[in-house]
Each structure stands twice: as C-alpha cells, then as structure tokens.
Design goal:
Elements (H helix, E strand, L loop, with lengths): L6 E6 L8 E7 L2 E7 L12 H4 L15 E3 L5 E3 L2 H19 L4 E5 L5 H14 L4 E4 L6 H11 L9 H5 L2 E5 L3 H4 L1 H8 L6 E5 L5 H5 L2 E3 L6 H14 L5 H7 E2 L1 H8 L4 H8 L3 H13 L3 E5 L1 H4 L4 H14 L9 E4 L6 H7 L14 H11 L14 H9 L5 E5 L3 H4 L3 H8 L4 E6 L12 E4 L5 E7 L4 E7 L10 H12 L11 H12 L12 H7 L2 E2 L28 E2 L18 E6 L16 H5 L6 E4 L1 H7 L6 E5 L4 E8 L7 E5 L25 E7 L1
Parallel strand pairs: 6-7, 6-14, 8-9, 8-12, 9-10, 11-20, 12-13, 14-15, 15-16, 21-25, 22-24
Antiparallel strand pairs: 1-2, 2-3, 4-5, 4-16, 17-18, 18-19, 21-26, 22-25, 23-24, 23-26
Helix pairs in contact: 2-21, 3-21, 3-22, 4-15, 9-12, 9-13, 9-15
The structure holds iron/sulfur cluster.
C-alpha cells in the first residue's frame, strides 16, 4: 500500500545533464515517492518520464546485492567484502608486479558523484599507481572539451538555461532536444520572443519537425556547411568587427581559409539548396540574440572537434557570446559529465589542472598533502587506446565502474572478445545483469542514485546535491565506500584519511578549484548548496554576482593568457568508412525515446518506461529505399555491416534521407554494426557513420 509521506527533501536527478530538481517524499526517512521541484531554477516544476520513474528502477530484481567472485571452475559465487577486496588488491598487485603499473587500467563514468570520481581518480593514480584510466564521457563529451579548451583556453560551456528563453534565434546542430533533453526543450517553448528555431540534422527528428527551419544536410557535411556559412557572412560583411578585434585572434587566417568554401560547392556537398544556406546566414546576421547549441550529432563524429569549433567560430565572428540569449553551447549528456570533465583525474589533473604543468602538480600535491612524485606528469591513455592496450596484451587487469561498455563501446563484438582475454576483470555496478557485469571475474555491488550523497554538475555548470533517501539493497555499498576499501586493501588508505566523507571531499575539491575558471570556493557546504537550489561555477569566495542564472564571458575575456578566444580550423577529412557498392547505406545511431537512457541498464527496469518504448528493434528506412528493396512497413529486415548483422522491424518513414538507416543506441545489438573510427583530436568514437546493407528477411 502507498505510504503517506511525512517529510520531503530536494535532490537533483541522476540521469541526464539537464540536472532537474526532484522533491523526494519521505516516510520515516525513506523515499516513498517523488515529484519535480517547482522552485528549482533548472526545471521549474517539470520532469521527463525518466525522472518521474527514478525510484522505481532502484527496486529491480537484478540489483547487485553481494560481491561475486569467479572460482577456478568458472562459476561466480557470493563472497564477503573482505574476501572481495583482498582478492581485488592481490590480483591487481600481482598483475602490476609481473607486467608493470601500466598493465592495470580503469574505465569509469559520468554517472557517479563528483566526490566519488575524484576519489577514484586519486586512489587509482596516486595510490595504486595506475597510469591509464578514462571515462565513458569519452563517448559523449570529449569533443566539446577539446573544442572549448583550444578555442576558449578552458573547458567552459558559457551558457545558462535561461538563454533558451532569451534567444531570438536558436540554432540546434545534431541535437534532438525534444527527446534527448526534453526539459531544455520545454525551456525553448517558454521563449516569448517568437524565436527562429533552426535545426541542422540529417534526420527529420522530433525537434526538426518542430523547428521553423530544418536544414537536412547530408550526414557528416556539417563542417563544410559551417565553413561555407562563415565564408558567406564574411563576404557580405556580416561580421561583428569590433568584437572580433577586441576579443579574438586568428580571424584573418580564418577568413582566408574559408574562401575555398563557396556557396555553390557547399550546396552541392551538403545536398542543401543555396537559398537555404543564404537564408540561415541572413537569419544569423539579422537576429540580435543568436544561440548555437550542439550535442552528439557533432560530438560523435570523425571530425567532431573541428565541427564544434566551426560553430564556435560562427558565434565569435558574429559577437554572439557573453550576452543573454547567445553562446556557442555544448549540451552535455550524462548527469555528471561536467563533474567528470573537471574532477575525474583522467584527461585533466583534478580541478581542470594540467598533468604536464609542474606548477599545477605542485598545487594539487600541496592541497592533497601527498608527495608530488605520486602525480603522473602526463594524462593516461584515452579509452580507445586502453582498448588497444588490451588487444596488445599491455593491459591485463581492468576495473570498470558504473558503465556498460560491452553494450555501448563502438564495434561491440571486438570489445567483448577483448574482455575475455583479460587476466582479471572487476566490474562495480548497481546491477548484476549488464552485459559487462556478466563478464566480470569480480562483481562489486554498488549503491545507486538515491542511496548515497554527493554532488553532480549539470550542463550549465550548476553544482547540485544528491542525497541518501533509501537504503541500498543487501550488501551494496556507495562507490565512495568501495573506493575507500580499495585504498585500504591496496595499502594506501593513509594517503586518503582526510577524504573521510563525500562532504569532506567536497571541501578538498573546493580548495583544488581555487583560482581556476571553475572556482567554487564560495560554496560553503552541502547545506548552503541545498538552500541555494544549486549554484553555477564560477562561484569564488566573496563572489559579487549571486544570481541564480549566470553565463560566462560577459566581459569579453576568455581563458587564454592573452584573454582572447581563438579561431581554430582545419580541412575536412573523409569518414573512416563510407557507403560503397557492397554496403550502400549509411547507418545513423542515436537516442530513440525520451523514456530510455543509454544501455537501458536502469530504464528497462520500469514497466512505465518500457511501455513508452517498443521492445522490438525498429530501423528507420526511407520509403523510396524500402520500395526498391521490396520491404513493407513492419516487415522483418536484416541490417548488416562488415562487423555483424542485426534483425529489425522496418519503420518506413521519411525521417531519414535516402541511402540512410537509423537505429536507436539503446538496443543491445546496435553496436555490433558500428565502425571504430575516432575524432583524431578528442579520440571520441564516431558512432554516427558506418556502411551497411539491408535486405528483407
Ligand atoms: Fe532527469 Fe534529465 Fe529527465 Fe530532467 S530531463 S528529469 S534531469 S532525465
């Protein structure tokens, strides 16, 4: 029976980067229900189906409740935490003793609290001597990180969500905001300026259908399109000269570079009408507050960094940055991708510092009170390089935390085979049934969102609080506790004795953030964060601006030493695998529904969410292609690449262009098809382009 609540408390949602506030209804301190928080400045009383169902999925039958250890007979049996962690330390230490510190690596996540990922990064790199660790944020945000660092001097998305409401022209690139970030889309719907909504996307997505202008460019021609737009605007004198001269460098070189992207050749390459491109250029010129937004359609590309920078360049050359309703704005994916970007100790040294900078190493060593020589002098391998390291036999032990790469990594079969070659695989997860958890030699049961405390940082840089509102099942422990045990059993627990609770780690992270662009030394503690309903960085001690919506670069100063933003550009490059006579279709992958999340580890556990999304795999195919192949609506078909084949029902629809097929990323088999191509600058996988062929079954 439903229990009547006797109290409520506010937390932020644990799925996507929107970071909605949720009010949890408590009975004797335990969560019995939840509703969206009306007073939270992010979601203003709204939530998507995933948020509404956040408590349900914690009750699933396949929650990991006890450590499981594989015996010599190949069977996994329950063990106590002491045995589990003794084995963890003994096996990884023996691999390191035999093959070097480099031979053990970890893969983590943007789904755990900032304090937890900082503890993991510190224990692994400074305590256990692990050199290589990366996160699943490599699969979603690495491109934006590199693009911002090179253009602005720091990984700093400049916007606040209010910009959705204040723009008079919103340009969405490779973003299906309606279903991927439904609450952000609701913020667009609250815009009272009758904005132009422009969508650049090869698919006629839910968002494209709702736009005032949809540019259905050929897949992976967006970089050419943005160079062409820049050239057109420069030719016509539609440049904010005073902004460019005062706040940027490299414009003249950029103007020379884009001359080769003439209107007619860009129209030919993108498949767009020249008038459509001219119309968009004119809109950007004419409108006063233009905001540019991008997400996975750009990030998960073979040239994502340069595409993101071509978008940034458009904002710079038109002076659309630092003012309300403007910006070159990357929308993050996971609830704590921003926390991971700054505090996971993988690409950056804790706090957005640089491993290679001796001053940064010295500052971090001082704050943490650890010997400076424990800090590596360079970042470890990226995710794809770790995967190659397994292939080469250099990585022999792997620790996977709160991510499911056996489903989500590009060219999945290859990754699964490689998992089988490891000497020891440890998986730490809430659920025992993920594809990766099933492969583990040692499974460590973890508490989930709602069962522990900490902070997340959302897309608009807002630090928000999560709280323990129910007990984790069985023997499951918070990731914080598991990392503390790892340090203890590895013999380096002393180094982390000050890291005694998530909130004490928060105080350490504050000190690490001091004088960085992400400085949040002005946030006193968890209580003040709770009272403020989340706080955006930067928020230094004594911050003058305490408003609830704050954007960056209002003063025109960027984070490079000279204070100027950079125009960064490069010639377009070909995709790793393009359609040919044998495999004539291009496969696009992406989010299939607002009700589902990534590999469905959590969302498939809710009956309500399952009903909102078809259980059978559907492939979108254009009517003309379906006719040519003799495939009718709902008919069984096979989609096949050089790496594998999948069975799907035909969804005959003009949402995709001719020669394209779309599969949702949530299905376990989609990544059996994808081709392992990577952006050379960010090493982010290019999930949205590989060659396939199709036939009826
Ligand atoms: Fe949670 Fe994102 Fe849905 Fe908001 S939009 S309720 S943060 S999943």
């Amino acid at each position: 029976a439903l229990k009547a609540p006797d109290a409520t408390t506010g937390v932020v949602c644990g799925y996507c980067s929107t970071g909605c506030g949720l009010t949890v209804h408590l009975r004797e301190g335990e969560a019995v229900n939840l509703s969206p928080s009306a007073d939270y400045p992010v979601n203003l009383g709204m939530a998507c189906p995933k948020g509404w169902e956040a408590l349900t999925v914690l009750e699933a039958d396949d929650r990991a409740t006890t450590p499981l250890l594989r015996g010599d007979d190949g069977i996994r049996r329950p063990v106590d935490w002491h045995t589990a962690m003794e084995t963890f330390a003994a096996r990884f230490k023996s691999i390191q003793a035999e093959h070097g510190n480099e031979s053990v690596a970890y893969l983590s996540t943007g789904q755990i609290a900032t304090e937890e990922m900082a503890l993991l990064g510190a224990v692994a790199k400074f305590g256990m001597g692990i050199k290589h660790g990366d996160g699943n944020t490599r699969q979603c945000m690495a491109t934006a990180v590199v693009a911002y660092k090179q253009a602005f001097g720091f990984d700093a998305p400049p916007y606040t969500y209010q910009d959705f409401e204040e723009s008079d022209c919103i340009v969405l690139v490779g973003s299906n905001l309606c279903i991927a970030h439904p609450i952000m889309w609701e913020r667009v719907m609250k815009n009272r300026n009758a904005p132009e909504i422009v969508v650049v996307d090869p698919r006629r997505t839910e968002t494209a259908v709702s736009a005032t202008l949809h540019l259905q460019a050929r897949p992976k021609t967006d970089l050419v399109l943005f160079y062409g737009l820049a050239n057109l605007m420069i030719e016509r004198g539609w440049v904010d000269r005073s902004f460019v001269e005062a706040h940027t460098s490299g414009f003249d070189d950029y103007a020379r570079f884009v001359r080769r992207f003439g209107l007619l050749s860009v129209a030919y390459e993108t498949g767009l009408e020249a008038q459509q491109i001219e119309h968009l250029a004119e809109l950007i010129h004419r409108k006063k507050r233009v905001s540019f937004w991008w997400t996975m359609g750009v990030n998960q590309s073979h040239e994502g960094v340069r595409t993101a920078q071509a978008i940034i360049n458009l904002a710079l050359l038109t002076g659309n940055i630092g003012r309300p309703g403007t910006g070159a704005n990357s929308i993050t994916g996971q609830c704590n991708a921003m926390g991971s970007r700054l505090f996971s100790n993988t690409t950056n040294l804790l706090g957005g510092h640089d491993f290679a900078d001796p001053l940064h190493r010295s500052k971090v060593a001082g704050v943490l009170e650890i010997p400076e020589d424990r800090i590596p002098t360079q970042a470890g391998w990226t995710y794809d390089r770790i995967v190659d390291g397994i292939r080469e036999g250099k990585i022999r032990g792997l620790w996977v935390i709160a991510t499911n790469p056996a489903h989500s990594w590009i060219h999945q079969q290859d990754f699964r085979q490689l998992l089988g070659t490891l000497d020891f695989l440890v998986v730490q997860d809430m659920y025992s049934s993920t594809e990766t958890a099933l492969a583990a030699d040692l499974l460590l049961p973890a508490a989930g969102w709602g069962e522990k405390e900490g902070t997340f940082i959302n897309s608009e840089r807002r630090v928000g609080l999560i709280k323990k509102v129910r007990r984790a099942p069985g023997q499951a422990l918070s990731d914080f506790h598991i990392f503390k045990l790892a340090a203890h059993y590895y013999g380096c627990g002393e180094m982390f004795k000050r890291w005694e609770s998530p909130e004490s780690i928060f105080q350490i992270l504050k000190a690490l953030s001091a004088n960085q662009p992400c400085d949040f030394t002005g946030i006193r503690d968890y209580r003040s964060l709770d009272e403020a309903r989340g706080i955006q960085w930067p928020y230094p001690e004594g911050a003058a601006d305490l408003s609830s919506q704050r954007r960056l670069f209002a003063d025109g100063r960027f984070y490079h030493a000279d204070g100027r933003a950079r125009f960064v550009f490069e010639n377009p490059r070909p995709m790793g695998e393009s359609p040919d006579d044998e495999y004539p279709f291009l496969l696009l992958t992406g989010r299939g529904s607002a009700s589902q999340w990534h590999t469905q580890t959590r969302t498939a556990k809710s009956g309500v969410l399952r009903k909102l999304y078809p259980a059978e795999l559907h492939a979108e195919i254009h009517p003309a292609d379906a006719r040519w192949l003799g495939i009718g609506p709902g008919q069984a078909m096979i989609v096949e690449s050089r790496r594998g084949r999948v069975h799907a029902k035909a969804f005959v629809t003009p949402t995709v262009g001719q020669g394209q097929v779309f599969l949702p990323m949530h299905d376990p088999v989609t990544n059996t098809l994808t081709y392992p191509d990577f952006d050379p600058n960010s090493r982010q996988p290019a999930y949205k382009g590989c060659a396939v062929r199709i036939r009826s079954e």
